[in-house]
Amino acid sequence: MHSKNTLLSILLLFSVYMLRAQSYEGLLTDNYNGVHGVLSNPANIADSRLKLDINLIGVSAFFGNNYLSATLGDAFNDIDKTFDDAKTTPKSNNFIAANLDILGPSAMLSLSEKHSVALYTRARIFANVDDIDGSTIDKEGGFDENENFSINEGDLSGELNLWTEIGATYARVLMDKDEHFLKGGITLKYLSGIHHAYLNGSEVTVDYNAATEEVATNGTLTHGYDVGGDDSLGDAFNFGQSTGLGSDIGFVYEWRPDHEDQKLVDLNGNKISNRGINKYKLKFGASITDIGSINNKGGEQQTYDLNKVQSIDNFEGDDLEDALKNNFDVIGGLQESSKTGLPTALHANVDWNIYSKFYLNLNSDISLRGENKLNTHHIQNQVSLTPRLETAWLSIYSPISLMREIGFRWGAGLRAGPFYVGSGSILTSIFGQTKSLDLYAGAKIPIYQNKLRDKDGDGLKNDMDKCPETPGPIENTGCPWPDTDGDGLLDKDDDCPNEVGPQENNGCPWPDTDGDGILDKDDKCPNTPGLKEFNGCPDTDGDGIIDQDDRCPNDPGSPELKGCPDFDGDTLADMDDDCPKIAGPVSNNGCPEVTQEVQKQLNDYAKTILFDTGKATIKPESVTVMVDIIQILNEYPNAKFTVEGHTDSVGSKESNQKLSEARANSVRDFLINEGISGNRLTAIGYGEEKPIASNGTKIGRKQNRRVEINLIK
Asked: Which Pfam family is one of this chain's hits (predicted)?
């Protein structure tokens, strides 16, 4: 093989390609990753499980391609055979990939329940060659100058960038309302470019004629690099000359259906968030990282016209830069190097707390940069599923992913206290054919949030709970309320904590106020002794009607008369009967009515009352008549009468009037004296005004001298 094959270096600018595989795979899904969380989503550090996290050093390296696959597990037996047996897959768009991500001294600090900050230092190397024809790789180091060959690369590109970052992150809780929790964060980073080199070709072809030993090339090729060095990584570094600004932004939403159970309280009832535990059932995160670019100062960029036929001897001993400068024409003159475009990407993930400490994370990384853009990096899209067991001091995870052009990858990782180590492809690398290999490891100083303990589950944290192993209310400092009398009602709700009593009487025994043997709750007359058959009420007269419903509680009576008696049987209770011993109609208040016959009889008796001549004195022989009148009046005790006195016309009118009044009052007084109520009798004297016969005869005058007793209607 002729050494002039160095021309192929035009097509192989780099031996590695920087594919932005996710650094620290598995670790970044961990809720206890601390400052590492800002690398994938700056919102991660808000409401962090760590008070403080100090990263001492962390290194993540990646190699991958879509051309060569090997079983690295065979390397333990025969490393040479491993690569001899490697399978190749030539394509028109092969690539080789490598990544180095160094996280230097960094720190994350949780300022409060809502606010967190982080400061980190980081060094990154990105290098890539896209769209290399696999047949070119097959022939590298093996082209025979005695045979014709052709290479059709078409469009190709490659970038190599080394820079450092100093990032500052602020994250805070945006919403904490019941089961909904949202946090956001932003990272601003200062970028310092150290080295850059890039290549971008269009419609590049190479044809070699063995007979003439001439090479015909076509297309255009743009080449940029640090001045003073060539395209190798170690020959040219510009510290502090190339700078730029970048940023990351992200949000995280958590669904916390058990939020009430995850918050404890102090003795004042104020809720305290248990920041030492994960509180979500589902978590959704989204972020955009690596927004920005680096201004490459002190670098050169030239575009070369490759349309030329020349002897292969022209390339002997030349490196890439010399081969281009010495053999091709420059288009457009010398320019300053193009900006380095950061590999802007969208990251989204869902984290499911399956049970207790077991989680399942689904993550996707999607490039927001197009391929073959001048000196601009892009990530290779991938989707990963990571089951993990997570505790504060130990997490174990095993990411399973599909990466574009590389395919299936299976890895494992471990975080144990201050140390972390893992790989996103270690298992596929050992047990099967793999196109990638990555590894990360590091050390940190984690200081975790205190987990609030509530051993008895009563909502009061242990250090404030006077009965930490027995549930009790906050108002009783976490101790259960006693039930001194054992009646099933707590003392705080028991009005009689030392006496057994039913709940319906607030823990007090039912009293028997009247001492009748019937408890007040069953006694309709709790203040008066009574009988059981009458629900504790008395029946003094024994008529079967309790006193409170008996109008005549001391006299037996009938239910129809509400417990009152009816002596005369006129259906009117004695207490309402003006004549309780004499039957009479209700319309006359139970008294008999004075009939015309009775009225006549009264007057017949009254007319026979005799008086001493010219006087009002009743003669003794009229006492019998008066007794008969009294008997009649007693039969009608509620009837009222007028006692009327009348005279003849003998004598003066004035004397006759006085005499009639005197005789009427004499009869009234006699009747009253014998027991007739005075309010029933009215005495009236009419003198000679109402004769019933002629005063011209002796018989007539005798009839006119009379007393009448008439019913007042």
From this structure: TSP_3
Spell out the alpha helix ranges (H) of 312-414. 320-327
Q: How far apart are CA 276 and CA 258, in angstroms?
A: 15
- Joined together, the tokens standing for residue 127 give 């290098």
CA angle 645, 650, 651 (to 5 degrees): 95
- Yes or no: say if 398 and 413 are a contact pair by the CB < 8 Å rule: yes
CA distance 312 to 216: 9
Maximum alpha-carbon separation in the chain: 200
The SS3 of residue 646 is strand
Q: How far apart are CA 578 and CA 589, in angstroms?
A: 6
pLDDT, residue 208, reads 87
Phi and psi at residue 496, in whole multiples of 5°? -130, 75
Helices then strands, counting H and E runs in the chain, come out as 9, 29
Q: Please state whether beta strands 282-295 and 299-305 pair in parallel, antiparallel, or not at all (unpaired).
A: unpaired
- For residue 669, what are its two tokens? 């007084």
Tracing tokens 């490196």 back to the chain, one arrives at 319
Contact call for residues 186 and 248 (beta carbons, < 8 A): yes
Whose tokens are 């990858």? That residue is: 409
C-alpha 300, offset from chain centre: 61
**CATH no. of 596-711:** 3.30.1330.60
Single-letter amino acid code for the residue at 512: D
Please choose, from the candidates 48, 234, 42, the residue with its C-alpha nearest in 3D space to the C-alpha of residue 120. Answer: 42
pTM of the predicted model as reported, rounded to 2 decimal places: 0.66
Q: Which amino acid is at 451?
A: K
Q: What is the pLDDT of residues 644-689, one digit of tens each?
A: 999 999 989 999 999 989 999 999 999 999 999 989 899 999 999 9
Q: Is the dihedral of CA 216, 220, 221, 227 positive or negative?
A: positive
Region for residue 624 given its phi and psi (left: phi exceeds 0; alpha: psi -120 to 50; beta: otherwise):
alpha
Q: What is the 3-state secondary structure (H, E, C) of 490-537?
A: CHHHCCCCCCCCCHHHCCCCCCCCCCCCCCCCCCCCCCCCCEHHHCCE
Beta strands in 136-179 (DSSP E): 149-177
What residues does each domain of the chain span? 3-448, 596-711
Element of type H or E holding 133: none
Q: Give the closest residue to 614 by CA, choosing from 644, 651, 667, 653.
A: 651
Ranges of the chain whose pLDDT falls below 70: 1-22, 73-85, 137-144, 228-240, 317-318, 587
- Phi, psi (deg, nearest 5) at residue 3: -65, -15
d(CA 352, CA 501): 52
Structure tokens at 516: 């009748």
| Cβ atoms < 10 Å from Cβ of 441 | 17
Ramachandran sector of residue 403 (left: φ over 0; alpha: ψ -120 to 50; beta: rest): beta
Residue in 584, 555, 563 with CA at minimum distance from that of residue 572? 584
Quickly count: other Cβ atoms within 10 Å of residue 691's Cβ: 18
* pLDDT at site 137: 67
**Residue found by looking up tokens 């021309």 in the block:** 7
Angle at 472 between CA 504 and CA 485, to 5 degrees: 40
Q: Which two tokens stand for residue 96?
A: 């080789």
604's enclosing H/E stretch is helix 596-606
Inter-residue contact 204 to 189 (CB < 8 Å): no
Instruction: Give the three-state DSSP class for 387.
Output: strand
Q: What is the pLDDT of residue 9?
A: 37
> For residue 176, what are the β-bridge partners?
181
Q: What is the CATH number of domain 3-448?
A: 2.40.160
Q: What backbone torsions phi and psi does residue 4 show, to the nearest 5 degrees?
A: -65, -5
Q: What is the DSSP letter of 611?
A: B
Give the number of other CB atoms < 10 A from CB of residue 535.
Answer: 13
Closest Cα partner for 252 from 47, 21, 400? 47
